Amino acid sequence: MQRRITALIGIAALTAAALSACGAPPADGDGDGEAVDFLPCAVSDLTGFDDKDFNELTYNGVKEASDELGVEPKAVESASEDQYASNIGSLIEEDCDLIVTVGFALANATRDAAQDNTDVNFALIDSVVTDDNFATIELDNVKPVLFDTAQAAVLAGYLAAGASKTGVVGTYGGMPFPSVTIFMDGYADGVAYYNEVHGTDVQVIGWDKAAQNGTFVGSFDDQVAAKTVTQALLDQHADVIMPVAGTLFNASVEAIKDRGGEEAIIGVNSDVYNVAPENSRYYLTSVMKNLTTAAKEVTLAAADGEFDNAPYIGTLANGGVGIAPTHDWESKLDPALLDEVEQLQADIISGDFAVDSPSSPKA
Hey, where are the domains in the chain? Predict the structure, then answer.
């Protein structure tokens, strides 16, 4: 499964990257050795560009695109939420052509800057622009970069159900944002489909898809609260847990360690096996957003004069989302289960299996 999933994700991601690169201008622009007249820029959220996660993966895409263009990107890290607007403003003053803003926390600051600076283009990662009543609005110079992570989370839910020994799997979120609950929806659907295929009754605790409510920490940085939430899920016999809460998966690992258990964690956004390898034995897989591919593709398109405000939507088909290899867990899993997950991925890509979440992005 590790080799097969890696191959499938790799082929889709390379295809997307190749397509975007085909439309990119050459590094020497007009052929006389001069760099392209295009300045890509980025603003992080408060975790910065060295978070080994969301911000870093996004900025890697901007840097890869910049390398192809032969330009040097500019970036500003945010240390607090009240810096978002001023950091974006500082990059506007630097005459940036495209400003990539990372995460829903920067959505309002991006909206306001875009409305005041219609000659500057923005790519908003993992969020849409809304008005003060939270209704989605479209701005000509803002491109939402979104991910249908429900597709990949279905695979993780199916895998979790098959790996569970107790018949109970769990999940929790940082806060009830659509970019969080979309993971939880897919996870629940994956478990439900496993039950349908195998005639089992694996339960999901921590999320009720029909009611659209569940268990949330209330933040993305409260490790103590996340550990308490995890302990409660373990008390209910959950032996596979998916925290949709950034780095709070570390608290879940600590809760498992405290009990000396063999329970597993499913990471989100990036492959947590690479983020915190010291705890590799606890990672079943991760539901990933290919932020690097997305940011690179959007940046290259903008440099080629092909910026538009149509949302980029990462899917299994274009390599924008996927699940990580099962790494250390592969030897513990039934090969037949891994084959079923691979087939389910193919069925989602072909359209034979429909994934539905109220939080899935729409083109």
Answer: 2-147+291-314, 150-288
